[in-house]
Amino acid sequence: TKHYQVVGNPIAQSKSPFIHMAFAQQTQQHISYQRACPEVDGFLVEAQRFFASGGLGMNVTAPFKLDAYNFASQLTPRATLAGAVNTLAVQEEGSILGDNTDGYGLVTDITQQLGWPLRDKKLLVLGAGGAVRGVLQMLLEQRPAQLVLANRTLVKAEALASVFAPIGPVETVEFDALSGFAHGHFDLIINATSASLAGDLPPVPETLIAPATYCYDMTYGAQPTVFLRWVASLGVRVSADGLGMLVGQAAESFRLWHGVMPEVKPVMAALRQHLK
Ligand code: ATR
To answer: What is the annotated quaternary arrangement, including any partners (predicted)?
Structure first.
């Protein structure tokens, strides 16, 4: 049996054990996958303990993605750009690789599972925190016609725009300035603020939302998120929550560890059922 775990604080809510055990069953890997919840300053000690005891891979969630970034002995290019690590993997020679599979999870969910095109589309991303930093590279690599980043704190959006400038152009605005865009201007709006978690809406002017606007919320729950309920009330016909992103990032971690890409669809369906 090969040992894996997910580390976060809190961690009880994590669906990663469910997802990875389902992938393992599907691909006939013999694994254990535990949860660990160190104190907020306890990541390093936990990571050292886990890998010293023979652990082969770790998923990392809030608030430890930066600790994991610092812990890794090497980083993939996408983890370096994301400035955060959600996957640690023991390499053959014993060193520990840090990767970030969040952008892969989001973009494959949008383009492959949902089948929404990104190329030449106008995208609006709400938020400029760690969640956005983790996905901007993959979004820009799809070559959208425009990517606008709206954030409450403009300087944080501007900082991200300069980090990702070599990959593609990012326009930055405050929420107020969004009223300058025409009704239906954006093909896709992605909510990546943590507002949903608190049951709040990001202050997007409702004039922006047209029935043909695609909407994605990076959070998820048993019920539609406040953002998805709000856009539905404005007539939006096509929307999705972040459950597919969650399963997609897990699939890419699984591939990194086991060398085989599991099937996302059946696990998505099982997880949706499990959430109820
Ligand atoms: P995460 O890892 O989820 O991205 P984060 O790095 O703390 O967490 O970032 C949270 C994001 O949600 C930020 O963009 C934050 O805006 P600020 O940069 O201005 O703080 C945004 N956010 C949180 N609550 C919000 C709210 N009620 N309305 C609008 N934006 C909100």
So the answer is: Homodimer.
Paired strand residues for 32: 3
Q: How far apart are CA 235 and CA 224, in angstroms?
A: 15
The residue range of the domain holding 28 is: 2-100+247-275
Ligand 1, residues at Cβ distance < 6 Å? 127-131, 151-153, 156, 193-195, 200, 202
Active site residue 65: yes
Active-site residue, from 2, 65, 265, 276? 65
Is 106 inside a domain boundary?
no
Task: Give me the interface pTM, i.e. the ipTM.
Answer: 0.98
Q: Which amino acid is at 37?
A: C
108 within a domain of the structure (yes/no) = no
In tens, the pLDDT along 175-222 reads: 999 999 999 999 999 999 999 888 899 999 999 999 999 999 999 999
Helix and strand numbers, DSSP H then E, in the chain: 11, 12
How far does the centroid of ligand 1 lie from the alpha carbon of residue 95, in Å? Answer: 34
- Is residue 130 included in any domain, yes or no? yes
Residues 29 and 86 in one domain: yes
Tens of pLDDT, residue by residue over 143-173, are 999 999 999 999 999 999 999 999 999 999 9
